[in-house]
Amino acid sequence: MFEDMMTQSTPHLYISGLALSPTNSALFKQFSPKYPRLALIAEGHDRYWPTHQMTLDGHTSAVTSVTFSPDGKKIASDSGDNTICLWDAETEFQLGSPLQGHIYPVTSVAFSSDEKRIAHFSHPPVAYLLGYKTVHFFYSKR
User: Fold this and answer.
1) Beta bridge partners of 120
2) For residue 26, what are the contacts with CB-CB under 8 A and spacing of at least 6?
3) Across residues 85-110, what is the average pLDDT?
4) Which contacts (CB < 8 Å, 24+ apart) does range 51-54 have?
5) Alpha carbon 124 to chain centroid distance?
6) Which of 24, 37, 81, 107 has the fewest CB atoms within 10 Å, i.e. the most exposed one?
7) Residue 5: what are its φ and ψ, rounded to 5°?
8) Would you put residue 88 in left (φ > 0), alpha (ψ -120 to 50) or beta?
9) Rounded to whole angstroms, how far apart are CA atoms 9 and 63?
10) DSSP three-state, residue 59
11) How far apart are CA 44 and CA 140, in angstroms?
């Protein structure tokens, strides 16, 4: 699966990454024999991929959508609890209080490219656009 990419692209980048892959991963098992002079990790080489990367606690109902900001520094999540939470993607801390006041569960969320607005959608079909000082509501005509 990765062989073409590893051999035709910038091989040294992929080979460097291969050395850091867990020893029991399919990637390491398949490709490390092809590179006998692969750098060795002297201590602390993981055997398996981590099962837990990050936990963001803040919603009181199931999370329905998660998105990263364009710069990758923030995360927005929405939930059946009718809220949107904003998070610092590096520290995992919630940024402010949850955005509340939605009548229906929020089902989708997205950042604008300039990160000044958050658009979200709920069911029944209502789209919201959150700006710095205003909230605009757009109702679907079904």
Assistant:
1) 109, 128
2) none
3) 86
4) 54/92
5) 26
6) 37
7) -65, -40
8) beta
9) 38
10) coil
11) 54
**Bridging pattern class, strands 84-88 and 74-79:** antiparallel
Tokens coding 25: 């991963």
pLDDT tens profile 1-29: 456 655 566 666 667 788 888 889 888 89
Residues in the chain: 142
Which class for 108: exposed (0-12), middle (13-18), buried (19 or more C-beta within 10 A)?
A: middle
From 41, 48, 11, select the one nearest 27 (Cα to Cα).
48
The percent of residues in the chain predicted with pLDDT above 90, rounded, is 6
Q: How far apart are CA 58 and CA 77, in angstroms?
A: 10
Residue 81: closest CA among 57, 106, 56: 106
Q: Where are the beta strands (DSSP E) in the chain?
A: 63-68, 74-79, 84-88, 106-111, 118-122, 126-130, 135-139
The answer to whether residues 127 and 121 touch, using CB atoms and an 8 Å cutoff, is yes
Contact assessment for residue 99 and residue 85, using Cβ atoms and an 8 Å cutoff? yes
